[in-house]
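// run 5 | inverse folding | seed 20
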């Protein structure tokens, strides 16, 4: 597989990441962060498990692409980052 073919093979991952980020924004705004974040980690683990079982003679479409799409769709979701970027609790005023 040459460099161009390798680069083109990652286009579905980028598309899945974009779709996942868009969908996650809507899901988090409706349901909060905790539930979608837990689901995202479970689905990501499933995608990584699919990728872990790719053999040396595996095919891209049958073995690599499904795990890549599942993991990419969830890993790019902003739900994991939205919690860390949310505004912190207001600081308490010190009494002097």
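// decoded
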């Amino acid at each position: 597989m040459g460099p161009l073919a390798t680069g083109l093979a990652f286009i579905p991952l980028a598309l899945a990441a974009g779709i996942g980020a868009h969908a996650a924004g809507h899901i988090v705004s409706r349901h909060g962060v905790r539930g979608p974040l837990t689901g995202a980690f479970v689905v990501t683990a499933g995608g990584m498990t699919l990728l872990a079982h790719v053999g040396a003679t595996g095919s891209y479409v049958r073995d690599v692409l499904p795990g890549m799409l599942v993991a990419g769709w969830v890993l790019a979701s902003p739900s994991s980052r939205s919690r860390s970027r949310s505004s912190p609790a207001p600081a308490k005023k010190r009494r002097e």
